């Protein structure tokens, strides 16, 4: 068993499909099948059962998958420790980044960091913040940048704060909202909960949903074009001079705030490249990154 075999087991369990696993690992399906047979011969067990509905892992196969995850983590740690012995800051930095940060902040951030540390490579995964938190927790990434106050017991750094605001192309008052078309969008559970709680405290009727879209950025574009109002983090609309906005407040009159955090494990920062990236990010003013 080598690193490639452990990776095959991990990805195969995630995909539950031979063809998709082969595509993900950039190998041919016959080659993948041959490697699976090699693993089964080595351990003298069946790893998977093939059926009309796809593949199913045997108990022995599931055990090997768990071992694969442990082995890959140990191998990655060994590589990082070896690189850490060098004086040079180098290696592959694995980042998990929320969709908004990836779209608006990440490219200039990595450009500036690379100017100082040109021998660092990057593997970036983007997605919803709750998924990024899980990736950091399971050490699939070194560092996560997430939006919202997720529970995190290890090291973290507050990057910036923003108001949650109602935005519309035309002037409006908050009392007008129940009769105005609202543009809803998919977002993480934390932000949706904050918005729903505010609405339920403020109004007795449900919002008038005029449109459903995929992301906050799409909602912003619809607002700009006068198709309705949106309830958005202020970072999305602060540059739009022709959009009217009103920051929301909680029951005590305090602004509703959304925070953006950097999460990481304290022991992960013992790796030089991770430590230098953390120090670099801590010094930045994220509100000035465009």
TrEMBL record:
Keywords: DNA-binding, Transcription, Transcription regulation. InterPro entries: LysR_HTH_N, LysR_subst-bd, WH-like_DNA-bd_sf, WH_DNA-bd_sf. Residues 1-58 form the HTH lysR-type domain. GO terms for molecular function: DNA-binding transcription factor activity; transcription cis-regulatory region binding. The keyword Lyase does not apply. PANTHER family: HTH LYSR-TYPE DOMAIN-CONTAINING PROTEIN, HTH-TYPE TRANSCRIPTIONAL REGULATOR. Belongs to the LysR transcriptional regulatory family. This is LysR family transcriptional regulator.
């Amino acid at each position: 068993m080598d690193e490639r075999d452990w990776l095959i087991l991990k990805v195969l369990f995630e995909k539950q499909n031979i063809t998709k696993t082969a595509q993900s690992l950039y190998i041919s399906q016959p080659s993948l099948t041959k490697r699976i047979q090699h693993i089964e011969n080595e351990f003298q067990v069946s790893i998977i059962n093939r059926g009309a509905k796809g593949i199913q892992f045997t108990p022995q196969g599931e055990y090997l998958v768990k071992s694969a995850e442990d082995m890959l983590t140990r191998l990655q740690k060994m590589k990082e420790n070896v690189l850490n012995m060098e004086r040079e800051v180098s290696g592959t930095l694995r980042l998990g980044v929320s969709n908004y940060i990836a779209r608006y902040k990440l490219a200039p951030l990595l450009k500036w960091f690379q100017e100082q540390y040109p021998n660092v490579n990057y593997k970036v995964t983007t997605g919803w913040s709750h998924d990024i938190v899980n990736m950091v927790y399971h050490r699939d990434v070194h560092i996560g940048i997430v939006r919202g106050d997720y529970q995190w017991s290890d090291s973290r750094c507050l990057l910036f704060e923003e108001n949650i605001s109602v935005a519309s192309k035309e002037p409006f008052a908050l009392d007008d909202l129940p009769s105005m078309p609202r543009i809803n969008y998919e977002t993480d559970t934390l932000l949706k909960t904050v918005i729903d709680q505010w609405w339920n405290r403020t109004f007795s009727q449900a919002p008038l949903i005029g449109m459903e879209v995929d992301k906050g950025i799409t909602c912003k574009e619809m607002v700009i074009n006068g198709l309705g109002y949106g309830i958005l983090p202020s970072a999305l609309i602060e540059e739009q001079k022709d959009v009217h906005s009103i920051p929301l407040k909680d029951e005590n009159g305090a602004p509703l705030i959304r925070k953006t955090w950097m999460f990481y494990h304290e022991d992960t920062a013992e790796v030089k490249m991770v430590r230098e990236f953390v120090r670099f990010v801590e010094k930045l003013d994220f509100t000035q990154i465009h």
